[in-house]
Each structure stands twice: as C-alpha cells, then as structure tokens.
Design brief:
The structure is a single chain. The protein has helices at 2-24, 64-72, 105-113, 118-129, 132-145, 168-178, 182-188, 212-215, 255-269, 277-280, 367-391; strands at 36-41, 47-51, 81-82, 102-103, 192-198, 201-207, 219-227, 231-240, 243-250, 273-274, 283-288, 294-300, 304-305, 313-318, 322-323, 331-339, 342-351. With 392 residues, it is α+β, with helices and mostly antiparallel strands. The chain folds into two domains: 30-269, 3-Layer(aba) Sandwich (Beta-lactamase), CATH 3.40.710; 272-358, Peptidoglycan synthesis regulatory factor (PBP3), Domain 2 (Sandwich). The strands form five sheets. The chain has a six-stranded mixed beta sheet with strand order 14-16-17-12-11-15. Strands 2-1-9-8-7 form a five-stranded antiparallel beta sheet, with helices on both faces. Strands 3-4 form a two-stranded antiparallel ribbon. The protein is globular and about 85 Å long. Mean pLDDT is 90; it is low at 1-25.
Length: 392
C-alpha cells in the first residue's frame, strides 16, 4: 500500500512540475492569419514568436516608421517652410496638404504616423534630402546601419514597387530603434493631435488610424499600412509593468485580433525584475580636501530589467574626484547597465557616508593664514586631478 502511494506521489510530482515548466517555456499555439509575423521584447530584441519572419514582403505604409524617424532627427523641427508643390501630388492617404501650405517637419511626422499621409512623407523627403531620391538613399543607408539586411526602400511613403520590401523581423528591429526617439514615441502613441499648417497656418485635428490605441490596454503605437499588393500590415507596440513588446504582421486579414492575441501571450512570457545590487558591485570615489581621501557610494532607487542579470555589464559615470565636504545622500553620478552593448537601464549613485572638510590649524583665524590654506587646497586639488589621469 505504501509503495502504491509513493508511486502516485512521484507521478503527481513530475506531472505538476512538468506543467509548470511548460508554462514558463510554452510556445504560442493560437495561430496567426498573417503571411509573416514576429513578436519581440523591445529592450533586448529577443524574439518571442516568429512566422516567416525573414521573408521579403511589401510593407506598405509601415515604411513611414523609417521616414518619420529620419524626419524627427532633423534640426529646426518647428520651423515653418512652404511645401514643395510637386512632392505633395501623390495618390493615396493624405494629411491634407495643398500647394502653398506652410508646415513644420514635426507636423509632417504627425501627418505620416497618424493619418498615414503620403503627401507628408514626400514633403519631408524633399525638405530633408533635396529630392525624394536623395531621401530614399538616406533611408537605405540607415537600414544598413541598423543591420536590416532584408530591407530595401524605393518610396518614402510605402506605395507599391516590386523592389520596395522588408521583413517582419527587420520592421520590428526598425521600430525598436524608432521607439528610442522620444518625439517618435510621443507622436505614434497619440490618438489624435491638433496641429497648425496651411496658408497661413491654422489649427486642425489629425486622427490616428491605429485602432490598437483604443482597443488594447497598454498600446503605445505604432503604424498601420495597406496596399492591394501588401494587404493589411500592422506594427504595434504595447507596454505593461516595465515590459515593452513589438508585434509586426504583414499581409494579415485579421491583424487587430492577431496582434492582441500575440501581445497577451508575450506578456505571460516576459517580466521585469529588479537588478540585484551585486551587479553594480561596490564602488568608492576619491575626495580631495577632506578628512578622508575616499568615500563609498551606493545605488539610489531601483532599476529593473527583462534581461538575465548575469549577462549585464556596467558602466560608471563619476567624476575623477569630489571636493569635501561630501554628505551621505549626495547624488554623485550614475551607473548604466548594458546588454549586448546597449544601455537598457540606469541608476543614480549617491554618497553613503560623510566626508568632512579638512580644516587647517590657522584656518579659523582668518587673515593671511586662511588665504594660504585655501591656496594650498587648490594646489592639492590640481595635483590630485593630474594624478587621476595616471590611475585610470
């Protein structure tokens, strides 16, 4: 009898932990209607789901992720200029530009990412590159820089051309880079926006065509797309509890639902955890003019990561030395946490103890002695500074 109970317990034990293990490493089994799709975790770029993710396909207006990113990297984003009359004569979706309109590059980025204006993409291309062809060269140069090996641009808007293509994976990695631009993130996550443009400029509203912003909790963008050849294309991003996911579906008749299902799956697979203090390790800084020559520093606040903490490297940002007095709690610098060479989190560093200023014997008496003491301290600081170069 005891043997049977023991056997039943062992079987139950392995069944239980087998189920637990399968949950933590389960694969998505919901099915996706897209011809190609990918789901990645944005911080590390880790792929959580892929279907034909490296197949070259037309990507329609999701192209404007690249066009808008290049636009928002330009200077004088809020400077008005007159749109090129030929650039805005383009078929398809529009932000409503007409000949003679005055507009800004920032407004054109809104026009690309919200109503998916082809006129906005062309107008920005001519303004930035001088010609559309030059701007397309800039797009392809950036694609190479980002390592998008299966991407080639022919238009800034995404209108169909047989030689205009990308992959679900490449578009996800492009979006990962674009979301690091705060202006891009602010625009693509806007459900609508009031802008001023025209001749003369006047206020008007633009509405975002991305329904995910209304329908999915945590959605933060990014871009819709459609042509007869490309079908329905969608790039979406969502953020919950410190985790950001990016989903790309190409030629997907059920893109809204497929994206929501993939996000639901992704958020069960990834979680953000606090970075252990041991990753940063212990650190001290040099102090000049103090009762001690060093001061211990400690982490201020907390930082989280979705990466394996053991795979993180750290980079300190601290001055070569600090002048006394130093007080416990003084913010002295920061530490960056890097994953595969990219900064994925940062934390401030503060003094964990007091270091008092060293007082000379005649300093409190004032007069010439005090003056000499101050000169001596300044000289010592210079010497300390020069020495620090040799100790790095």
């Amino acid at each position: 009898m005891m043997g049977k109970r023991l056997t039943a317990f062992v079987i139950a034990f392995f069944l239980l932990f087998g189920l637990v293990g399968s949950v933590s490493a389960q694969e998505y089994t919901g099915g996706v209607s897209a011809k190609a799709a990918v789901l990645i975790e944005a911080t590390t770029g880790r792929i959580l789901y892929a279907k034909n993710a490296e197949s070259r396909l037309p990507m329609a207006s999701t192209t404007k992720v690249m066009s808008a990113l290049l636009t928002l990297e330009q200077p004088d984003l809020d400077k008005y200029f007159v749109v090129d009359p030929n650039a805005i004569k383009v078929e398809g979706s529009s932000m409503g530009l007409v000949e003679g309109d005055q507009v800004t590059l920032r407004a054109l980025a809104y026009g690309m990412l919200l109503p998916s204006g082809n006129d906005a993409a062309n107008a920005a291309a001519v303004r930035i590159g001088g010609t559309i062809e030059n701007f397309i060269g800039m797009m392809n140069d950036r694609a190479k820089l980002l390592g998008l090996e299966n991407t080639h641009f022919v238009t800034p808007s995404g209108l169909h051309d047989d030689d205009h293509y990308s992959t679900a994976k490449d578009m996800a990695m492009l979006t990962r880079a674009a979301l690091k631009n705060p202006d891009f993130l602010a625009i693509c996550s806007s459900k609508n926006a009031q802008l001023e443009f025209g001749n003369p400029p006047f206020k008007r509203w633009l509405k975002n065509s991305n329904k995910m912003l209304q329908s999915y909790d945590g959605a933060i963008g990014v871009k819709t797309g459609f042509t007869d050849e490309a079908g329905r294309c969608l790039i979406s991003a969502a953020r919950r509890d410190g985790v950001t996911l990016i989903c790309v579906t190409l030629k997907d008749p059920n893109d809204w639902q497929d994206t929501a299902n993939l996000f639901d799956y992704g958020f069960t697979q990834v979680s953000a955890k606090e970075i252990p203090k041991t990753v940063a390790g212990e650190k001290t800084v040099r102090v000049t003019g103090g009762t001690r020559k060093e001061c211990k520093v400690e982490l201020y606040g907390a930082a989280t990561t979705v990466a394996d903490p053991s795979k993180l490297t750290v980079r300190y940002h601290l001055d070569r030395f600090y002048y006394a007095p130093v007080r416990a709690g003084d913010l002295l610098g920061r530490v960056d946490y890097l994953y595969e060479g990219e900064i994925i989190a940062s934390q401030q560093l503060m003094a964990s103890e007091n270091v008092e200023r060293q007082m000379g014997p005649a300093e409190t008496e004032g007069g010439f002695s005090a003056f000499l003491q101050s000169i001596g301290r300044a000289f010592n600081a210079i010497i300390e500074f020069l020495r620090s170069f040799g100790q790095e």
